[in-house]
Amino acid sequence: MVYSDPNSAKNDHKKIKVRVQNILEMKKNSKRISSITCYDATFARMIETTEIDVVLVGDSLGNVIQGKKSTIDVSINDIAYHISCVSSSLKTPLLVGDMPFLSSGISRAETAHNAGILLQAGAEAVKIEGASSEICEQIHFLTRHGIPVMGHIGLMPQSVHALSGYRIQGKNEHDKMRLLTEAQKLQSAGCFAVVLELIMPQTAKEISESLEIPTIGIGSGNFCDGNILVLQDMLGMNKQFKPKFLKHYLQLEDSITQALQEYCDDVRNAKSELI
Ligand code: KIV
């Protein structure tokens, strides 16, 4: 978030810390919310120079950092470690930590304990996948005890086996009604925002219009109140990974491999004086 500071002599832009309350106000003021994932200090330092509102240390680190096929192997300590890497370089955006597979939903005590680990590592809120009655009850408990929660419905990668793969959600009327109900339940449980992943754009639009809290879409069209992408994916660090909704803002895989080969050639040929 960048505001013009009227007291500044140069009237330059001063960055104001983004908090949960700002995220709620952004929806009221029809300001769209930009969000990105991040897992390390180098990228966090660069994100800090932009106007990105929300940074998520997502369990997608299982795919892009750990090289796993799904997010199921990611542990609470993995997320806590990457939060601590990011939080040292990130001041302005709201920092959200993802609750990984089975770290929530089992019992209220375990969920609270695990959310506490992420907050102690530097997160300012947690994200939880799902909207079962157990999860909603646990979200309510966290929010009543001062832990802000972002919900997540639609495609939930932690439930990939139950959902029979990475498929678009909310295609038929029954699915749409289920998603609308889940979104309402998460709002009532106290979530300050909800991620809508890979949901039919019309369904995502109806959910967004039905909620007071903002929706953050990924692969769910243009009608959500904001959007999130996985950093390495949008930078084109894996050119094979190009789902329909994903724009590669750079072709970093090509640039990086070319740079590495150039360096390798310089070393072999003792060519550059810079090494
Ligand atoms: O883990 C993650 O990166 C996520 C986002 C894609 C929403 O959950």
TrEMBL record:
GO MF annotation, one: methyltransferase activity
Cofactor(s) listed: Mg(2+)
UniProt keyword annotations, A-Z: Cytoplasm, Magnesium, Metal-binding, Methyltransferase, Pantothenate biosynthesis, Transferase
GO BP terms: methylation; pantothenate biosynthetic process
Annotated EC: 2.1.2.11
Subcellular location: Cytoplasm
Sites where the protein binds Mg(2+): 59, 98, 129
UniProt key word Transmembrane helix: no
Associated pathway: Cofactor biosynthesis; (R)-pantothenate biosynthesis; (R)-pantoate from 3-methyl-2-oxobutanoate: step 1/2
Protein name: 3-methyl-2-oxobutanoate hydroxymethyltransferase
Similarity comment: family membership: Belongs to the PanB family.
HAMAP family xref list: PanB
Binding site for 3-methyl-2-oxobutanoate: 59-60, 98, 127
Subunit field text: Homodecamer; pentamer of dimers.
Textual note on the cofactor: Binds 1 Mg(2+) ion per subunit.
Gene that produces this protein: panB
Signal peptide range: none
InterPro entries: Pantoate_hydroxy_MeTrfase, Pyrv/PenolPyrv_kinase-like_dom, Pyrv_kinase-like_dom_sf
Pfam family, one: Pantoate_transf
Task of the protein: Catalyzes the reversible reaction in which hydroxymethyl group from 5,10-methylenetetrahydrofolate is transferred onto alpha-ketoisovalerate to form ketopantoate.
Location of the active site: 197
PANTHER family xref list: 3-METHYL-2-OXOBUTANOATE HYDROXYMETHYLTRANSFERASE
